[in-house]
Each structure stands twice: as C-alpha cells, then as structure tokens.
Design a protein that fits this description.
This protein is α/β, with parallel strands linked by helices and 331 residues long. Helices cover 36% and strands 24% of the residues. It is built from eleven helices and 15 strands. A hairpin with a 5-residue loop joins β6 and β7 (104-109). The longest helix is centred in the middle third of the chain and has 20 residues, at 110-129.
C-alpha cells in the first residue's frame, strides 16, 4: 500500500517570523535539548574558503530516533565585505527531510532560521548564567543578528530596563536604537546608542556581542562583578570579540565542543596559557540537564561562547515545520 507523501512546504523569512516566537523557541530548545543531544548526529561542519573574504559552510544533522524523524542540512555563505554593501554577511538555506523515508518536507530561509536559533540559544544560556535581576543590556554590533539578540535577551530577562547599542558605525547603532525604541515604547525600556564602548561595558549586566571583529572589542578589565558576557560573532580562530582578560576573569561555558576548536577567543587563550581546556566550565546541554551549575553568586563573571550547531538548526526547524503544518490542518 502506497504511503501518501507529506506536503512539501517553502517557508520564507516572514513566515518564519510569524510562526516562531522567541519565548516558544527558547522553551522548545530547553525541553528538547536533553533528549535530542543523545539522538541527533551532528558531524563537524564543512567549511570551505571561496575567496580571501568569503566562505561556504555545510551543516548536516540527522536523528536516530523515530520520535524525532528528521534530517536537516543547512548551506551557509559568509561574505565579510557585505557590511560595506549594507547587506547581511551571512546567507543560508535549510532543507528538512523525513529521516524514515528520506522524503523532503520543507525548504526554509536558513538565514532567518539561523538568526532566530542563535539568539534563542544565547538567551537560553543567559537563563543559567546571567543575573536574574539584570537591568542593563549592552549590544555590541548593530547587524542583522543584533535585534534578535536584544529581543531574545529581553524575553528571558524581563528585568532589563535599559539597552545600550554600540557599533563601529555610530549611524547604524543610532538607527537600530531608534527602531527598537519605537517597537518597545509601550514597555518602558530605554534604548540608547553609544560611542563609548568601554564605559558601556562597565555599566552592563549583560554584554552581547555579534560582530565579525578580528581584534578584541570588549576589555575584560571593564566588566563589572556579576556581569555576563555573551559572545556570538566569531566562528574561526582569527576572530575575537573580547580580550584575554575577559576569558581569564570569567567562568567560561560553550554551546558545544566545536567552540574550543573554532572560536578565536578560546583558541588564542588556550595557546597563550590564559586558561586550559579543562577550565572551560561546561556546555549548554550540561547546563540544561543540571549536570553543571551555572551562576554561583551575584559577583561571578560568566562567559558564554557560541559558534552554532546543526543540532540547534534541526530543533528550530522541527518547531517551525510542525507548528506550520498544525496551523494549516486547523489543529
């Protein structure tokens, strides 16, 4: 007897945004990561330079469990010079297959999926690592990921009342702060752009970085006691968003082990003897499972370094696909 093929759907960026909320995705990741971490196979991503300033990344992942019957593949291009063209530096597409039959289920905007899952992974880590009473968020960078990170952090830390935004281009920081201020006007949250990065770092309870910088931006000496540093931008050893002092002062966690091979902040710190690999306090899954303790006191400085994982992509794609299909079926 022939099996009816599942409907194939194309999910564009606006549909992704309307289907997923930060709260729902953060909750989904928090509840599914413990089991998924043992059933999802995610080999090291393929990274291929296509020019001196561009690269192609291939990120496959598949499930061994019939209760999570998916295979996912994301294709990503990174063009460093796109910022000067007012274009996102990262573009991507994601394809979801049924793992038991191999049938294609969906193609979706991989760039938007990446922005959503990346910001929600940072916000999930913040649940365990930042102070519950955090009031000031500093966003370092004003690119396409910045507004998602701000919104995700506001979701898990509703105590935040002030958001500072710094960018090398002060005009971009100003534009983003004005846009976010209008969006959150009813919530009474203050949005400000700043040219004084070191001063802003010293004032922030949470510092979130999403840049392509190859020179340290956040000075660890400026981090105040109890601060949480969220490092998102770097994904290769030549990139750094903070200096060695931030790594030395902070208790470091990673989204997955690949961060210790790919992130310039950590690779360089290991090479210079700032910290050892054994001193990395744990990974995100260990935090969620309760196998590792997150923030231990009000004065501790914490650091979370993420480089991304195809596991996060599949779980985010699962939620958007299943939510959309249920909506289409009137469930």
């Amino acid at each position: 007897m022939a099996t009816t093929a599942p409907p194939f759907v194309f999910i564009d960026a606006p549909t992704l945004r309307s289907t997923l909320s930060y709260k729902n995705l953060i909750g989904h990741l928090q509840t599914t990561l413990p089991a998924a971490s043992t059933t999802l196979q995610s080999p090291t991503r393929h990274a291929h330079p296509t020019s001196a300033t561009a690269s192609l990344l291939l990120m496959p992942c598949w499930s061994l469990s019939p209760s999570l019957p998916y295979i996912g593949v994301k294709l990503v291009t990174h063009h460093h010079n796109n910022n000067s063209l007012r274009l996102p530096s990262i573009h991507a597409t994601f394809t979801l297959f049924h793992s038991l039959t191999g049938q294609p289920l969906a193609a979706m905007d991989g760039g938007e999926l990446t922005l959503l899952r990346t910001s929600c992974i940072s916000a999930l880590a913040s649940v365990y690592l930042s102070s519950p009473s955090s009031q000031v968020l500093l966003m370092v960078g004003a690119g396409s990921l910045a507004p998602h990170l701000i919104k995700a952090h506001l979701t898990t830390r509703p105590s935040i009342t002030r958001v500072l935004i710094w960018n090398r281009s002060i005009d971009r920081a100003k534009t983003l702060s004005e846009k976010m201020g209008v969006e959150f006007e009813a919530d009474g949250i203050s949005f400000e752009h700043t040219e004084r990065l070191e001063e802003a770092v010293g004032a922030a309870d949470i510092v979130s970085c999403a840049t392509n910088s190859e020179a340290p931006l956040v000075a660890g000496a400026r981090l105040k006691g109890g601060a949480h540093l969220d490092l998102v931008g770097s994904f290769k050893p030549s990139m750094r968003e903070c200096d060695d002092e931030a790594i030395r002062r902070g208790r470091v966690f990673v989204d997955n082990e690949a961060a210790m091979e790919e992130a310039g902040e950590l690779v360089g710190a290991f090479e210079r003897g700032v910290i050892s690999r054994r001193e990395v306090a744990g990974g995100l899954v260990e935090l969620v499972k309760g196998e590792k303790t997150g923030r231990r006191d009000v004065n501790e400085i914490t650091v979370f370094k993420s480089v991304g994982s195809a596991t996060w992509d599949v779980l985010a794609a699962q939620l958007v696909y299943e939510t959309l299909i249920k909506a289409q079926n009137g469930q």
